[in-house]
Amino acid sequence: MNIKSLLLGSAAALIAVSGARAADAVTVAEPEPAEYVKICDVYGAGYFYIPGTETCLRIGGYVRYDIGLGDVGSFDGAKANDRQDGSDNKTWKKNARFTLKTWTGQETELGTLKTYTETRFNFGNGSGVSGGLVTDNPAVNKTPSLKFAWIQLGGLRVGKDESAFDTFIGYAGSVIQDTIVPYGDFDTNVVQYYFDAGNGFSAVVSLEEGSGTVGTIDSYVPHVVGGVKYKQDWGAITGVVAYDSNYEEVAGKVRLDVKVSDAFSLFGMFGYGNDGKLNDDGTNVIDAHGRGFYKQWGGNWAWWAGGTYKFNEKTAFNLQVSGDDDKNYGVAANVAYTMVPGFTVTAEVDYDHYGNFDSPTIYGNFTKADKKNSVGGILRFQRSF
Fold it and tell me: Most buried of 38, 227, 261, 379 (most Cβ within 10 A)?
């Protein structure tokens, strides 16, 4: 064996050994099974299981842009001080909103455990009227608002909600400005119990905190709302009664919903409430005119009526008319057009007749002394997801 053969053999042996060691050093880990999000269709479309849990989650919301014009009293218009001479100018009332919503659901031995949250973020200007005077009216980022944050187990619901005086009986129509004649306040913390008796009968009892200077309870005694409903394919009959613990007054509403056809539906609602003790504080505009947390309308009684007609899958016409004991009247009508699924454009016209108060009155965030009759309009673009 010569030197050349010996060197070649030694090199081959070294390569074989090093290759074997290199092969032994490489360890390929077994891939972990991927945990894909699973669809949960128990509670409707859009839910999915939170990985590793039995809780179903849905995330949604909308992005909205409103363009309003007209008289301040219609809710749609705005005013501002002229930058050069300080005079009163009419201007656009605009608002952009992002709303984030979450829903959860889970089945337990005590029933369905649910939560719902809704948070709103807004940028825009206001009416530009405060205390009957035109003020500076800049477009700004507004304080985020928590509209809903409640937990429900079976029929028991606790947390931040809107009053059962409005949610159980239903809002006044499908128009944008449905509170030209108001039908109750909204924001409140609640302890509620819903009871479904079957055969279309249901009921609710709600203990509520209220909100605002007038509405928030001033003792350990809560506001109390009770309601009953009978619902069938043709529509529903609903009644609610509210006890305002601050003023020890009672208000109630009854409502009839009728489904004329798949395309045409109607509703009528009537409210009545005591207002004697609500006039005890002339320094506050709301109770100076008999308006508590629940009985927001003027005088003892009020009414709301309207309906929806769907021309086709994309286009609907909505109408609401309303009035109260103080001769305040409102009309709101719109056409809502769904351009593509999830994107709707709504054009609305609103009319407000200011009633028989003897002196200029602050009504919401504007003065009703501006005009006896107010007309405005609003164009809304909304992408819901």
Answer: 227
Helix ranges restricted to H, the chain: 3-25, 164-167, 212-215, 285-288
Distances (CA, A) of 33 to 30, 36, 54: 9, 9, 19
Long-range CB contacts for residues 319-324, cutoff 8 Å, separation at least 24: 319/173, 319/175, 320/172, 320/173, 320/174, 320/175, 320/178, 322/172, 322/180, 322/181, 323/181, 324/181, 324/297, 324/298, 324/299, 324/355
Q: Are 191 and 206 a contacting pair, CB within 8 Å? A: yes
Confidence of residue 19 (pLDDT cuts 50, 70, 90): low
Using CA atoms, how far residue 244 sits from 164, 171, 267, 276, 325, in Å, is 13, 20, 26, 13, 20
Q: Look up the pTM and report it.
A: 0.84
Query: Does the pLDDT value for residue 349 go beyond 50?
Result: yes
Dmax of the chain from CA atoms? 127
For 7-67, the DSSP string reads HHHHHHHHHHHHHHHHHHH--PPPPPPP-PPPB--SS-TT-EEPTTSS-EEEEEEEEEEEE
